[in-house]
Amino acid sequence: MSEILYISTATTYGGLEGKVESSDGAINMATAIPGTDRDEDLEDVTNPEELFAAAYATCFDSALQIVANKERLNVESQVTATVKLLEDEQDGYRLSIHLQVKGENIDKNQLEMLVEKANQIWPYSEEKRKNMELTLEIDTVNH
User: Fold this and answer.
1) Do 123 and 59 have their domain in common?
2) What is the pLDDT of residues 121-136, one digit of tens each?
């Protein structure tokens, strides 16, 4: 059985034309489809791909720092995630993710080694995505 290290909860209301908020209040933003009037009119607005890119980049950079610390390397790192929402006529919607990793105080070969090791331990790695647990709870709200 796995040990729970952290639990995070977020709720969305109204999908892409609503809002999203985390249970601790750190995220409390309107959501909008990029390029729509709502997106242009609202000041603090986001979308799922933006939130996913932020989570992806943060998680990978964290894994990179864990690996660097184990290797006793002091690396200043920066990870940028670009997430694209794609539509395929056969398969429907899917995501394309591109990670750009930069490191200071390290040579390229060492950084490549750290990136490879980080990719093995982070929760979103390709291998682990295949084995992610997904549970669905379905309920109705009657007014």
Assistant:
1) yes
2) 888 776 666 666 655 5
